[in-house]
Design brief:
The chain starts with a helix and ends with a strand. The strands form three sheets. It has a six-stranded mixed beta sheet. It has a six-stranded mixed beta sheet with strand order 9-8-7-12-11-10. The protein has two domains: 84 residues, duf1285 like fold (Roll), CATH 3.10.540.10; 100 residues, duf1285 protein (duf1285 protein fold, Roll), CATH 2.30.270. 18% of the residues lie in helices and 44% in strands. The protein contains three helices and 15 strands. It is of the alpha+beta class. The longest helix is centred in the N-terminal third of the chain and has 17 residues. The chain is elongated and about 60 Å long.
Length: 193
Amino acid sequence: MTDNQKTIDLAENLWTRLRGKMPGNGRHPQICGDIPMSIGRDGTWFYQGGPIGRIELVKLFSSVLQRDEEGGHWLVTPAEMARIEVEDVAFIAVELINEGHGKDQIIRFRTNIDQWVDLDKDHPLRVEQDPKTDEPSPYVGLERGLEARLNRAVFYQLVELADEISDPESNMLRIGVYSHGQFFEIGRMENPE
């Protein structure tokens, strides 16, 4: 496969994921390469090294942001596609609300751009462990391949809602939360019994 065909395939895949079909004119967005925009680990958006101070602009850019299969972040419009640098993930979950209890519980997160997302099968939880410090980094899935990292306070709230499920096969306790009838694992520990 030629580099030009790879570029066309990437443009088609990203555009289709964002909009559900190819543009009506049949033309692919032109890939512009990298632009001087980035997102820091704390969720701050930068342009040419300076923070973007207007939340309305950040919301506008975030509406066309998506992540490709290799983890690259792209701004995708009908005319152009440009890659931006993202230190970790594009968004931070800054608030948690829950309704109900046990398997009937529903957990919702609010991101730093005021987007609400339910913890469910389409927006799952994943927890990465730092290999050096063993500190957890929890993430919730969003649309278009994006994720939001739970800030420390939100993660502590989530842990307070956690249930323990005994796994007799591994002699471990699975620690996690229910939302929309599904169990989302936060971690495991040896069963003291």
